[in-house]
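Weekly sync notes, structure subgroup
Attendees: PM, AL, DS (notes)

Item 1: joint prediction request from the bench team. They want all two components modeled as one assembly rather than separately. Inputs as received:
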Amino acid sequence: MYARTDVILKIELQDPKGMALLGKIRKWNSGIAAKIQSLRVVDIFWSEFEGDQHEFDQLALDVWWDQVLQQRDWPLSHWVVEREYHPGMTDNLGRTALEALEICARRKLSKTQVSSGQAYLFSGETLGREEIEAVTSTLISNSLIHRHRVYSGSEFSNYARFESSEIGPKFLAPGGTPPAAQKIPLTGMTDEGLMQLSRQNLLSLTLSEMKTIQTYFAGEKRDPTDVEVEVLAQTWSEHCKHKIFAADVEYTEEGGKTPPIPAKISGLFKTTIAGTTKELPKPWLLSVFKDNAGIVAFDDENAVCIKVETHNSPSALDPFGGAVTGIVGVNRDILGCGYGAKPIFNTDVFCVGPLEMKENLPAGIIPPAQLLEGIRSGVEAGGNQSGIPTVNGALYFDESFIGKPLVFCGSGGMMPRMIADRECAEKDINTGDLICMVGGRIGRDGIHGATFSSLEMTESIPSSVVQLGDPITQRRMTDFLLEARDRGLYRTLTDNGAGGLSSSVGEMAGIAGGARMDVSLAKTKMPGLKPFELVISESQERMTVAVPPSQCAAFLELAELRGVEASVLGEFTASGRFEIFYAKEKVADLSLAFLHDGNPKLQLKAHWAHKPAVTTDPPKEAKPFETLKQILKRPNIRSKENMIRQYDHEVQGRSVVKALQTSTEPRSTPNDAAVLSLSHHNFTGVVVGCGLNPRLSTVDPYLMAQMAVDEAVRNLLAVGAEFSLGDETVLSLIDNFCWPDPVEDAAKMADLVRACYGLREACLALKAPLISGKDSMKNDYKGTQGGQPVKISVLPTLLVTALGRMKDYKKARTAEFKMAGDRIYKLGPPQLGLAASEWLALKKTPAVVKAAVPAWDQAVKLYSWLGSSESVTVLKSAHDLSEGGMLAAVAESSFTNNLGIEFDQRLELSNAETSFGEGFHQFVVSVAAEKAVEAEELWATQGIAFTAVGTLTAKPEWVWKGEKVSVDELYQAWHGESL
Amino acid sequence: MKALVLAGDGINCEVEMAHAASKAGFTTDTTHVNDLIKKKFAQDDLKKNYRALFLPGGFSFGDHLGSGRVLALKLTKGLNWNLEDFAANGGTVLGVCNGFQALIAMGAFGKQVSITHNIQNKFLNRWTAMKKFPAPNVFLTGVDEMYLPIRHGEGRLLFDSSVDVHNSPDFKITLQYTEDVNGSTERIAGLVNPTGRIFGLMPHPEAAVRKSQHPLWTQTPEKANDEEVGMMFFRNAYKEASSC
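Output from the run, pasted for the record:
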C-alpha cells in the first residue's frame, strides 16, 4: 500500500529550519527575501508498505508522531515547493524511517520502501512563481540530486497527496534488466576511434594509454570487455596513479639556477618526496607512502596515522555531498590503514572564491557563499555524526578558486602498535583469504569519480559522479571492524574509495598475487546494475576486507549482530591475474603486472622564466592602527568562530588545546594548532597543524612550498610541540598538492618542480620526514562567462599538514596574552616581506615589494629552543606571525583577556614591513616581566633573534607614540562579521 | 559496583563516559544495544547486575526523525526497561546529550516534553555557565554553579502548553543555563525525575573531568593536574550507589 506521512511543526512554534533558510535567501537576494512573510519546512515520508492501512497507522504513530511538537493540519501558504531525491540516491532519513518501522513492527520489512523529502511553505502575497523557482533552484534543490515541484496555494489544495503515488518519488521496481558485459571492439580501431571511446565513456585515458591497452589485448588475442577497459581506466587514472608525479621531466630555467634543480628528473615523487623521506630514516617511522595513511610510533604502546585527501570536483558539483563524502572517505583511509585504526580527529582546509562574488559567475558555478556553507555543513555532518572531532583547519580566499574550490579533508587515527601479536602497520594477505565487501551497498552513485576528477570542470557533468554520504552506516561499520580487528577476525582491509572494487580489490590482489571475485554476489541499492558499474561504483561507506576462511563464519556473525551488511565476493589467489565474474560469466581477466605497471610513463617539459628579484625601500604607513583594522576585516584573517563552533571539536574527550582560546566574555584568540590527549591513561599529546600560502606562488612556488612547511611547523611549535634535529622527537609532515593541469603547460610544470624542490629543502633543513600525501592535478574550469569562453585555473597550492608530539600535554602553550605587565617580543630573524601579503592585497597597489626568504639555519636554533622544555618555563604565550604580519598576530593575542599594549618606542610601526610584513620563522610571544632579562640573555646566548614589541597594560588600549586604538575596536573589526 | 554504559547505532561518547565512571570507582560494562537485545537483558537483569546506567552522547541513528527518538524506540520495544523501578531500587540513570534526548523520547520525564532544533538551527560547541536548580539530584551533591561544554544541534526543550514546568509530577528542572544558548524553555539545560535519580542534561560532564579540558586552563598551568567539575557527577553517582 502507498502512504504519505507529513511531519508538520505546530504553527505556534518557531521553525528554525525555515528561519535559517530565510536567512540564506536574504544573503543571496534581499529583494525576494523582503517579499517572504513566513517560510516553514515540512518533512515528508512516502512509503510503499507491505502490511495493511491499520498496521501502518499504528506504526506511524510510534515512528513519526510527537504531540508536543506536531500538528495534523497542513498550514495555508501562497506557495509550496516539494522536494524529493532522484531514485537510487542515498536517502538517510528514508533508510532510518524504514529501520524504525521494522523496530516497531518487530519484523523485517523486506518489501517496504520509504523515501524522504521536504515541503517548503512560502507565504507572501507578492511572491511570483519565477521567484519561487529561482530560490528553489539556487538554495533548495540541486538538479543532480533532487527533483522538485512548485505549487501555488490553490494548486496544492487540489493535490490529493494521500491518495496516489503518481506524484512524488518513484519507488524502484524489483527485477530490472539482466546485465551483461559488452565487448569493446578495440582490434584495428583508429586513433580517432580510441580517443572518441575514451571521451565518450569518461575514461580520461590518453591516446598512448589507449594504444597500450589495444596492444595488450592484441597480445591476448581478443577484444576487452567494458569491465576490463573501465578497470584499467580507474587504475590508470591520474587520481589513482599520479602519472604526473611519476613522469620523466625535462627542466629548463632562464638565467642562473636557483636553487640547483637537475635538468632531467625521473619522477618528482620518487626523487623529491619519497626520496627526501629516505634521507631522514627516523626510527619512529612505521609506514610511509605505501598504505592508505602514514603511520608513526608515538610511544611504546601506540601509533598514530594521518592522511589528508582532496575532494575538489565532487564538492564543486554538490558542496554538501562532496564534503561529507570527502571527510567520511578520509576516515575510511584511517580505518583501512595498516591493520585498522580508530579515527581520533579530522581537519579541514577550504580554498574558495571571494564571498562577495554573486553575479556574472561562470556558467554552472555555485556562488562562493553557498558553496562555502555547503562544504562547511558537509564536514560538520560527516565529523559530528561520526563522533570524530574536527580540531584544525584553514580557510583561504582567492579569485582563482572560483572555478574549482579546493576542499582538503584530513583525518588522524590511533592504533595499538601490536594487535593480536601482529605489527599494526602490517598488511599481508594469504592465498585463499576471502574477499569480503562490508558496509554500504553498491549503487549507481559515484560512477567515474576517479576518472572524472582527472578531467577539468566543464558546464556539463553526468550526475552519476555525485555521491551522498551516510555517516551512520559508516559509524556502525567502523565500530564493527575495530571490534573484529581486536578479535583477530580478519587479515587486512582497505577502503573502497576512488575506483570502487576495481581499485580496492585490485590493490589487495597486488599484495596477494591475484584475485577472483563474482560481483553478482555484491549487495546493491537497486536492481539492474551492469557488471562494470558494480566494479567501479564509488558508492560510499564500503571497505574491502581479506578474511581467512577459518574466521569467515565468526566475521559474518559479528557483522550481522552489529547491523552491518557484509558479502563474500570471492578469494585472493596466486594466479597473477585479476579475474572478475558475473555469476557464471567471466567479465574480466587482466594480468596484474599490466594492470599496475603497464601504463606508459608521461614525458613532460618544465620551463621556469625567472621573475626579477626586487628590493626597494619599504613603503610607509601613516596610520598603522587604521590599516590594521582593515587587515583584521579581511576574510583570510577575520574570525572563523561561527564555523569553528559548528564543528564538534571535543567529542572523545581528548581536547587539550582548542582552535579558540575563549574567555567567559566570550572573547576569543585563535590558537595555532590543536593538542589532543592520545589516551585517557597517559599524558602523551598529539599536535596537529597546517600551513599554506597559495598567493606566494605568484612570486615563486619554491618559496610557497617552503612557507607551507614553515607555517605548519611554526603552528605546532607555538602550542608547545617537541622539536629537535635528533631522532628523539617526533615531527612528520603530510603534503597535498592541488595544481592546475601542467601536462601541456611547461610553466605550470615548472611551478610544480620548484614547489617540490622547495618542499624537499625545508624538510631536509628541519629533518622532518614526509609520511603521506596526495595530489590533485586538474584544478581548472573550462566554460563560459557572460557568453565568452573562459578558463580559470587555481593558484598552484601546496597544503602541508604537520603531526607532532608532546611527551606531557600539561606543558602546552596557547596564543593569548595572559596578564598586564608581561612583556611582548617578536622572535625570529628581522627580515620580513610584503610580496603576496595581505597588506599588498588590501592596498591593491602595484608597489614593487620584496619577498621574505627563509633562513633555515637560524630557524633551527629558534625551533630547537621552542621545542625544548626550557621554553615552557619562560614563555607565557606564543602565536605564529603569518597572514597580516606582526600587528595582526599581536592583535589576536590581545583579544581573550582584553589587554592593552604600550608599544616599544624603538619600534618603527610606520614601516609597513615591520607592521604588516609576512615572512618565515616568526612568532609573537609574551614573557613575565620578572623573567624578561633572563629571557633576553638566554636568546642572545643561543643566537636567537628577538625584538622587544612592548608591555601589556590593564587598560584595553594600544598606544604607540601619538597613535591610539582600543582593543575593542580591533576585536570588532576582526570578529564583527565572523565567518 | 557495576555500571552499564550503552553503545552502538551512532552513540559516540561511550569511551569517555566509561572512563569517567571507572575513574569514579565503577566497574563499567560498555555494551552494544544489540547485545542486550539479543541476550533479552530484561528489567531484572538490569537491577541484578548494575547500580548505574549511563546513556552517552552521540548521533544515534543520525538524529533522523528526531534526536534520540529511534534509539528510544529500539530500547523500549527491544528491552522494555522500567527506569523508574530501576531508580527506586537503588539505581541511578544519567543521560547526556543524545542520551538525554533518548530519555525524553522514552518518556522518562513524562509525555508532555520534547526536544528539538536549537532556535539558531545550528550545531553549537562551546563552554557555557549553568546553575543547579533547587531540586533533588543525587548527581549534583556539592555542585552549584558550573561551566561545561555543550555540543548539540537539538537542545531546545519544549513542553505541552498545559504543563507548568515548575510544578510537574513527571520531572523537575535541575540545571539552567545562565544565558539563552539555544532557545530552550526557561533556559533549561537538564531535567531530573522527581526522586532525583534519573538525570538528563545537554552539557557534557564526561568531557570536563580534567582541568586540561577547560578552555582557559593554560592561564593557570599550576592546576593542570586538577580534576574538572564534571568528575563530581560521577563521584556522586558512585557514592550514591555505594550507600544503597
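Discussion: The CA atoms of residues 140 and 233 of chain B lie 6 Å apart.
Action: AL to compare against the crosslinking data before next sync.
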